Amino acid sequence: MKNTLPKRFELLPPEQYLPVGLQLVHFSAKLTNSKVRACGVRLAPDANRTSYPYVYVRNLINQGVDLDLDYLAKSDKAAAIVKHLHAAKHDPAPVMTDDERRHLLEIMDSIKQTKAEIHTSTVSLRTKQILIPKGQGYVALSPLGSNGLGRLLNTRVTQHNQMVKKGDKSSDKPTKLRYLQTAVFGIGGSHPINVGSLAQDLRRPLVFHGPREQPDVKRAIALYYQGSRIVLPRPLLMQYLTWLNQEGRGHTDMRTRLQELAYIHALVRAVLWRAEQDLRCLQEHDSSLPKHTNGPVAETAPRLARGLTLPACRTAEWKYEFAWTVANQIAETNFGKGQPGFNFDGAARQTLCTMIRGML
Fold it and tell me: In terms of domain of life, where is this protein from (predicted)?
């Protein structure tokens, strides 16, 4: 009859477990890039730390969740010791005696009560970094992966998905639980065990579908903080310049003046029409904007932009600023390709400003 009993582990001498165990970590840089120099961090329980409602290693440890530790880099000795320590905790089969299991669990418990930063005095050039604002500057942080957290999440997700499948098969009514979608993510190349005995658990990340972009809401929020912009339609500017070069320059009769007023009025009307559309967009998406009391444009927005969007804010000072801004934009329009512009001098700009103010 074939022997089906599990093979017992050949344990190492007891004194070899603790030195290697003190090099085990919760976070390892090699999970981010397998080619970086081995470094990592091990956390210990700290009752003085504030708890936040998120899934993160520090909080789980303080809540009494026993997260597995892992080695920084694979070696035969480290791999064997981690295998024995994990088996003592997770494998109910008689792969070791009760005394041996109890001894290994005691070693692991003592290790988890101590914190450590191993080889973190310098940061490898291959390690990715992100900049986080702090005060007047930034601090560079290197994100590190956690094999123990990956195993915990992977175990919970697998249990959940099995429950969903079982519920769907055993009942005519569909279960209210939703299947959690996962992907396949390469970590550690073709041999993930080189970067951690639990790295396999990090290869199946959860997949979340981000919200779809809502262009109108995005535009409304931008208008709330920035207000409307003065945009002069290029075709109207070209028509005005063509008329000016062909008929307008050098003529001061009433007919010429009225024709020029018509071009200026069309330009101003186009700017104000665009502002009306901006205000309608803000009103339609008012529920998506921050709370406000003085109109759907932030009071921190530039005065010219705010008044352009909100007619109630168009004071005499605003009209003067608006007229000068439009006049200067017309005068400074660059048509490119060697085409001459308006070439208005100061007096001509003043005349434009007066014409525009008279239309407001």
Answer: Bacteria
Give me the residue spans of the domains in the chain: 14-203, 215-359
**This prediction's pTM:** 0.58
How far apart are the C-alpha atoms of 164 and 160, rounded to whole Å?
Answer: 6
- DSSP string over 17-47: HHHHHTT-BSEEGGGT-TTSPP-EEE----T
pLDDT confidence of 174, banded at 50, 70, 90? low
3 state SS of 141: strand
Cα–Cα distance for residue pair 19/38, rounded to 1 Å: 17
| 79 vs 176: CA distance, rounded Å | 42
Q: Which residues of 184-199 are buried (b: 16+ CB within 10 A; e: fewer)?
A: eeebbeeebeebbbbb
What are phi and psi for residue 44, nearest 5 degrees? Answer: -130, 155
Q: What is the pLDDT of residues 121-159, one digit of tens each?
A: 888 888 888 999 998 889 988 888 899 999 999 999 999
Q: How far apart are CA 73 and CA 29, in angstroms?
A: 10
DSSP structural state of residue 279: H
What is the DSSP annotation of 283-305? HHTGGGSPP-SS-SS-TTS-HHH
Cross-strand partners of 288: none
Per the CB < 8 A criterion, the answer to whether 292 and 282 are in contact is no
Q: Which tens digit of pLDDT belongs to each residue from 199-235?
A: 888 888 888 888 888 899 999 999 999 999 999 999 9
Q: Is 86 helix (H, G, I), strand (E, B) or coil?
A: helix
